[in-house]
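ok here's NAD-dependent succinate-semialdehyde dehydrogenase, seq below lol
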Amino acid sequence: MRKLIINSKAYINGKFTHARKTFDVVNPATGETIASVPDLGVPDCMKAIEYAHQAWPCWRDTDTAIRSNTVRKWYELIMASKQELARIMTLESGKPLTESLAEVDYGASFVAWFAEEAKRAYGETIPAPKKDQRLVTIRQPVGVVTAITPWNFPLAMITRKVAPAVACGCTVVLRPASQTPFTALAVAKLAHEAGFPPGVLNVVTGKDSKGMGEALATHEKVRKISFTGSTEVGRALMALAAKTIKNVSFELGGNAPFLVFDDADVDAAVNGAITGKFRNSGQTCVSVNRLYVQNGIYDSFTRKLTAAVKKLKVGNGLDEGVLVGPLINQDGLEKVKAHVQDAIDKGASLRTGGKVTKGLFYQPTVLADVHPSSRIAYEETFGPVCALFRFETEEEGIAMANDSEFGLASYFYSKDINRCWRVAERLEAGMVGINTGLLSNAAAPFGGVKQSGIGREGSKHGLDEYTEVKYLCFGS
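and the structure came out like this:
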């Protein structure tokens, strides 16, 4: 196992640099300071963008095979550092170590995928209307990319953006979440070791999310912005990017429904709900938030789900057997508490949980017979809470599931193949999990509809987000 030391320096133009001003990064499980990192600001973002712009022409014109091999080397170094990367993630995000180890595999899979996709940025030939013409399209890298990533998946959200961008010839300025900068700096160190030239990848850390975000979204030399985070912030960034008509791709908020029909395998549905709800303590964009259960199996499902939730071990993610870690901060905890209390005030039955154990730890919770007017029905909770609603017919269940401004992920369980096709086609979501609580992988397009975002990450479409189609018309 490689030994990665916690890196307390920003990474700009191929160098790790100190700063006069720093901020502390806190372990949410213990409240202890892990270390401090540079608290950079707008001027530093401007410098990083300039360096990325200077590096772009050379990287753009580098042989595709060299770019591909460099990204592949990055993948190999990430996998060689799996254990230490996972520990860093758990320290700064609080997620259980088993989940962090899985995230290294998941995040690295995008690097491996796009190392290969770099060779497949295909153009096309088009039948010409005139015999003395030849019509062709080619794909070229869009240019300097700015990426803003969240704290809940501090490695995978980076690789999902950076890998396709650099693989096709773009350069990147990355601003990781201030809660989880050390994972970003660790993978930047590995990119440096893999042979990324100066300026190709830059990592700017800082607490001024508004100022840095505006700089990254409006700079005239930035051609593309990729953001994962809340819909509210996405709206603001989109308005800023519109000033210079930038290419944007946003993965925004979710409020995923989870439908269980009468013909479902109840035990499998319970397992799927546990997987889809409690990963990272419910703090994922595709986390199950609203569980709609058909009346015929409602009582059975509720009983079995409650029993399963009671068995989940809560604690420090570095401790053995822990499946549910802390919330990321006090604001996140207060939102969970407010959602649970609001549901109870409106008639929901608390079957288990519903309490803070200590610090930022909240008991895994099951609420039954939640009223549709409850906040948890239309707001993303981002916590370890299962909210159960009843429905009578397939049509009612689909309508309830679609009754949201969000449309990132949806899930449902049914043994009827005709229903599976019918419901999957009618759910208003960019991704649908059918008889599964997990749906993400590098080969599949990740993204939402409605106010859950624009664009897709992963798959062949993920490379398209960082290229422009150029049309060439040859005359006689």
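fwiw The two ends are 61 Å apart (CA to CA). kinda neat tbh
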